Amino acid sequence: MKVRILGAHQGESDTIRFTSFLVDGKLVIDAGGLTSALSLEEQLAVDAVLITHRHFDHIKDLPGFAFNRWEQKGLDLYCTDSTQAALQAHIFNDVVWPSMTHTIMRHPLVFHSVRAGVSSKVLDYEVLPLETSHTVPVVGYYVEGNGGSLFYTGDTRAEDAPSWAHVRPDLLLAETTMSSDHDAEAERVGHMTPLSLGRALRAFHKKQGYYPQTVCVHINPHHEGRIREEITALAQELGADIRLGSEGMEIDVFSRGGA
After folding, report:
1. Do 132 and 111 touch, CB atoms closer than 8 A?
2. Alpha carbon 248 to its chain's center
3. Which among 110, 156, 159, 200 is placed 20 to 30 Å from 130, CA to CA?
């Protein structure tokens, strides 16, 4: 499994993008920084998109992405019913943007419903959505296939008993939005800091007996320098591979029994 980080931030500029990940060139998880990171040819190679929740920084590029494909290839979009309702009410509504689901579309957008705790086959992957805690309904995704597995938390505030402690990912993509200096504020808005990530990782280790390779994403760019310092210290303290994600980063993910 190869993961490419298209967007690693909670913000946009000429050098950073909202959160989005590409798995093996064909599966996208969240669409905050999708179209600006991929050529048209790379966009057409994508076969499915998983969306964690309805917040703008995770869905921003969906309208353009769907439109870039409608003459050549449809789009299979996987999300919860509440996220689908928000997308269709506020974006794909024939007011702000075409619904993209009309039969007049040569290759329409097709919604697929996911439910927390219910595994399904998406392309060649086994995908298990798990509910995580945030200010709106969110699912994180455990994705297994092509020789590896990952779990992406989506936006969350996980600490002593994270839902992802029940799976065994080779790679953890963990939202780490704010520095620990702002931990109380982060808790109020349902986000993680290195402090809360450390508690969650210890809880995971207590249950599973190992620390997964961890890449921190959804980084507030104004907090990035301090987060980097805190994550470096946390990695040393736990003896774990924990690092900050960045746009364009590629990660080879192998099963724990693999090479």
Report:
1. no
2. 15
3. 110
Threshold 0.90, pTM exceeds: yes
Q: Which two tokens stand for residue 235?
A: 């990695």
Give the pair of three-digit tokens for residue 161. Answer: 């008993």
Residue 207 pLDDT grade (very low, low, confident, very high; cuts 50, 70, 90):
very high
Angle formed by the axes of helices 224-238 and 194-208, nearest 10°: 30
Residue 185 Cα distances to 55, 181, 188, angstroms: 18, 9, 5
Q: Which two tokens stand for residue 15?
A: 């050098």
Contact between residue 127 and residue 121 where contact means Cβ atoms under 8 Å apart: yes
What pLDDT sits at residue 164?
Answer: 92
Nearby residues of 27 by Cβ (< 8 Å), 6 or more positions away = 46, 47, 48, 49, 50, 122, 123, 125, 143
The tokens 């200010």 sit on which residue?
A: 135
CA angle, residues 80, 53, 254, in degrees to nearest 5 = 90
Rounded-to-10 torsion of CA 126, 131, 133, 134? 80
Residue 259 has what pLDDT?
Answer: 37
Given this model, what pLDDT does residue 104 score? 63
Alpha carbon distance 218, 148 (integer Å): 22
8 A C-beta contact, residue 200 and residue 162: yes
Given a cut of 80, is residue 167 above it in pLDDT? yes
Q: What are the tens digits of pLDDT across the range 1-50? A: 999 999 999 999 999 999 999 999 999 999 999 999 999 999 999 999 99
The DSSP letter of residue 97 is B
Q: Please name the residue that has the structure tokens 């969306």.
A: 51
